[in-house]
Specification:
Layout: H1 11-14, H2 26-34, E1 48-51, E2 56-58, H3 59-67, E3 88-90, E4 94-95, E5 119-120, E6 134-137, E7 143-145, H4 146-151, E8 169-171, H5 176-219, H6 223-244, H7 247-259, H8 262-268, H9 272-283
Antiparallel strand pairs: 1-2, 1-3, 4-5, 6-7, 6-8
Length: 310
Amino acid sequence: MGCDGGTIPKRHELVKGPKKVEKVDKNAELAAKWKYCALSQEKLKRPIVACELGRLYNKDAIIEYLLDKSAERPNTEVVAHIRSLKDVKELNLTDNPAWEGERRNIKGDCYEDMHLAMFICPVVGLEMSGKHKFFFLQTCGCVFSERAIREVKTVICHKCGDPFQEEDLVVLNGTKEEVETLQKAMEERRSKAKTAKKSKKNKDTKVSKNPDSTADSCNLPQNPSESKPASVNGDSSSGNSSDSAPGPSTSGESLKTLKAPAGPISGSKRSIQDMKDKSEAFKSLFTSHSSAKRTKDQTSNWVTHTPYHF
């Protein structure tokens, strides 16, 4: 079958060997990571944010995802660890002066360097294209190359001057091992924050309960301390009265001694007569009071309004 017309088949056409493993172009892979959003697969444009695992996103895409998580989107497993905007950090990037943007080659009649990056390191000047390792700070969001951090060792940010620690450095688009270490650090950080939040909540509940108990203790009458001297005075008076005077006089004196502590409390309250006097003075301010009403001599027959200037 076949081989008509003097065709000479080759070996690879007749013998089927093992399939070759397709190799991914490194330049294309780097461009997909460093020039496109990991969620929407659109070109990166400001504002650009990064997660705790070092992936780059457009902030608009993250906001749309957080507003509607039920919508079907590609690569949703990439942002499964993002719960709110607090889990991402807006990056403070430095523009590359050699990159003129997409407007330069609109007609397509000039050479365009596809490997040219939009951003560079502000210290060393290396392009952020994936050939060099870059870090960002979780405190301020500034981005630097690994060479700048290694050569200029400092605890203060090179760009904005904010202090930072080594724990605040996050690798951008790192390897699988680096992403795993970052994920473990993220889980530990979140567990610590959760326990701290629970402990703080328990302390707040205890503090909120304690004022109520103290207020109740303050409002309770101190009967035990006050009743003992009263009872002692009552016993002594009753004992003395039994020796010196008959029963009715002793009962009156004991009632006076028992009612004596209530004197300052009753004095602090306003009496009913004072309240009546004040209420009458307050009522006299209004026209409906008897003092504001006019007599028959003061009234007129034809006036339509009611002036009170008499």
